[in-house]
Amino acid sequence: MKRKKSYRTYPDTSVFGGTGDERFTTASLSFFELVQRGDFTLVLSALVEDEIDNAPDAVRVIFQELKSCSEWVEIGEEAMDLRDAYIEAGVLTDRWSADALHVALATVAECDLIVSWNFRHIVHFQKVPLYHAVSRLHGYREVGIYTPQEVLKYDR
Asked: Per residue in 37-82, pLDDT tens?
């Protein structure tokens, strides 16, 4: 019997926050249901955890429920260097270095996917190819960057 693939997926903070935003609630909760079903393996970081500290209680509860069954990526020199490379290449400015670090962490951890509702700095048609180009230049493979809505499974 063939085992189904579980995609190693880095959700940035916006996906957890999306559970409390009426525009994104359904897709965010559906994504986390697929995580609990084993379709996705969460890869989290201290950056996400720090940003969640300021979130509403309901968002923090969801994070805490998923935290213990997730993989963790360290904020190390390798990720910081890649974040700096994104900034030096002009993908983002220093002001948005945390967003660049989310992408760097997922890339260094060799995740299959990043899911985000951050349309301005992460899931953006002009930014994604730039992240990929910089990643390749630094010896990393491309990580798919999608919204939670895009990774949901639908019946045929």
From this structure: 999 999 999 999 999 999 999 999 999 999 999 999 999 999 999 9
Cross-strand partners of 7:
40
pTM above 0.85, yes or no: yes
Class of domain 7-151 as given by CATH = alpha beta
* In the chain, domain spans: 7-151
Q: What is the residue-wise DSSP string for the chain?
A: -PPPP-EEEEE-HHHHHHTTSTTTHHHHHHHHHHHHHTSEEEEEEHHHHHHHTTS-HHHHHHHHHHHTTSEEE---HHHHHHHHHHHHTTSS-GGGHHHHHHHHHHHHTT-SEEE---TTTTS-TTHHHHHHHHHHHTT----EEE-HHHH-----
Whether the CB-CB separation of 134 and 91 falls below 8 Å is answered with yes
> What's the CA angle centered on 125, arms 66 and 77, to 5 degrees?
55
Q: At CA 116, angle to CA 78 and CA 52, rounded to 5?
A: 80
